[in-house]
Amino acid sequence: MWVYPPEITPSEGERLTEVIKDWAVAHGLTVRPPPAVIAAEADPAGILATAVPVTLFPSPFPDVCFNQAVAVQKAYNELYAAISQDEEFLSQIVKDIGDGDNFITELWKVHLRVKEEGYVQDASGSTPQVKQVEFNTIASSFGGLSTQTSLLHNYLAATEYPLLKNSLKRGTLRLPKSDSTAGLAAGMRQAFIEYGPPTTSHEKCIIFLVQGGERNVFDQRHLEYELQKSEEDPPVPVFRLPYSEILQHTRIADGAGRQLLYKPPQLPARTFEVAVIYMRSGYGPSDYPDRTAWEARYHLERSAAIKCPTVLTQIAGTKKVQQVLATPETPSNPSVLGRFLPGSDAASISRLAGTFTNIYPLDETEAGLQARSIALDASRCQAYVLKPQREGGGNNVYRGSIPGFLRSVPEAHWTSHILMELITPPPVRNTILRNGKLEQGGVICELGIYGTCIWDGQARRILRNEQAGYLLRTKGDKSEEGGVAAGFGCMDSVAL
């Protein structure tokens, strides 16, 4: 009987560990080491890198599910582009979330300030079935490292797996390559082009808006380097700007054009006109410690730069929107999908809806009251996860912890969460290499399909809509969270 992934001996594990560690460092499949591995005082200059946590083998994933996820990705792009342009719908979403989430309220206030001042906004995104966990519209990470992980596993399949005692011959595995680095960079380059020629005397640039002390810097650098590879177009100036330094190094030009001008602190004689802002920060409350940080977001939002994402697109990515989309259609409550996809046929909408899982509000509607009774029941809550309107990992409340959590917060704040039925994945085994040590056992895999979408907000016309590779994140089956950067999961790739 063929067993996959194959059992390996201790010595084979040692060899694979050495090969993977060296390949990862040589090819940028790396992160800055966490404090648990290297204390900050041991690397004050920040010159060290370590291999990202990764599986020894690509994890098996049903091809029907993989193909289903790829097939609906562009439809999801179209859906969320439409949602991002529906202010009335998003206004109701913010109202439904309520006062229990000050972060979403503050984001909405930024939008209202821009709107009130009259600025026009541009936006830059029985048979096994795939089910949607979430749709990220801001700081969707690991596109750069996903490509490298795919290349690593293809390399091992060609050179190392055939040498094992339980050998995997070359060509045995079907390993789809992830072109996420190229796909995401192509979307940024197209946005850079769509911005048009600079209307000041300065050269255009792209800003990567990042967090201070970013450990996942190499993932972002891969996208930056990919932007320079075009043979037809000139290189794109790319600068990394910490969120906390926005107001210090940028200003909006005088006049009606509202061009965002950036003066790199290391190049004080140069000024650039910012065409695209790619946000790898600004997605959570920790990025906004004071009013100055909110003024910085307003400063960006009112500028003419193409923003990935705008405030409205960020709000469109909240869990509450996901819950409303997943609400089953009834005679008195038609599906909202038709509102946002009026040109799609019933079959296309059905394929999209087929990826939804059961998600419930915690408000005082009939569905919300039913969800509250489930969430407060020590037995029934075991099949659910409670999610706030947050990105970045580590924010969810699982199973038996839900009743106690809800009782610890004011009932008025419950509406800022949604209750999602846990998705039951098929059992899979693998070995994870994390910080030089092997962890073997059951794992859970989460597939993500990247996409890029550029639309004209005034004309309500999509200019570019492309699928842009995939990401497979894997965690131990005893772990609830799956964020790699948050320290819970690891990088993986697909074996069909």
Q: Which tags fit this structure?
A:
single chain; alpha+beta; 6-stranded mixed β-sheet; 5-stranded antiparallel β-sheet; 15 helices; 19 strands; 33% helix; glutathione synthase activity; Glutathione synthetase; metal-binding; glutathione binding
Any overview of this molecule?
This is Glutathione synthetase. It is an enzyme of class 6 (ligase). It catalyses: gamma-L-glutamyl-L-cysteine + glycine + ATP = glutathione + ADP + phosphate + H(+). Keywords: ATP-binding, Glutathione biosynthesis, Ligase, Magnesium, Metal-binding, Nucleotide-binding. The chain has one domain. About 2% of the residues have low confidence. Strands 5, 6, 7, 8, 9 and 10 form a six-stranded mixed beta sheet that branches. Strands 3-15-16-17-18 form a five-stranded antiparallel beta sheet. The chain is of the alpha+beta class and 496 residues long. The protein is 33% helix and 20% strand. It starts with 9 loop residues before the first helix and ends with a strand.
